[in-house]
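User: Last request for today: this protein with D-ribose, please.
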Amino acid sequence: MEEKKKPIILASDHAGYELKEKLKDVLKEHEIPFEDLSPEFDKDDDYPNHAFRAAHKVVREKTRGILLCGTGIGMCIAANKVKGVIAVFAYDEKTARFSRQYNDANVLCLGARTTDETTAKNILKAWLTTRFLEGRHTRRVEKIKKYEKE
Ligand code: RB5
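Assistant: Here's the final one, the structure of the complex with D-ribose:
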C-alpha cells in the first residue's frame, strides 16, 4: 500500500485518542509501520504539544504523519507552523486524495468529533495510497517551500 517503509508518525490529544487507536487497524492491516507519539490517554493534554512533537519528527525522519484532535483543525494549524510540514485537514476521500496529488501533503489531520470511524479509515487509506502528481504541482508546492524559507 505505502511504498515508504519508514514508520508513519501518529499523535493525538485526548479528543483524538480513541479514533487514533482505531486507525491503527488500517495500518496493521496494510503492514505499514508506525510510531505512536501519544500512547497514553491524558484528558488534560493540549493538542499543540502533540502536533509540534510529531511534526518535527515527520520532517526530521522524512516520513508522513497522522494527527488527530477533536476537529482536526487545531492539529492542522499547529503542525503547519513547523518548517517542512504541509499539513491538511481532510474530511472525505476526495480531499484526502487531492491533498496528496496536488499539495504533496506530508501530514494528515482528522477530527474525531467530526469524522466517523469508517470515513476516517477510508480517508486514511486514500491518503496513504495516493501519490503526488508532480509536474506543474511541483512548481506550486515549491513556491510555498521557498516562501517558508524567506
Ligand atoms: C480539545 O477539547 C479540542 O479543543 C481539540 O481536540 C481540537 O479540536 C482543537 O482544534
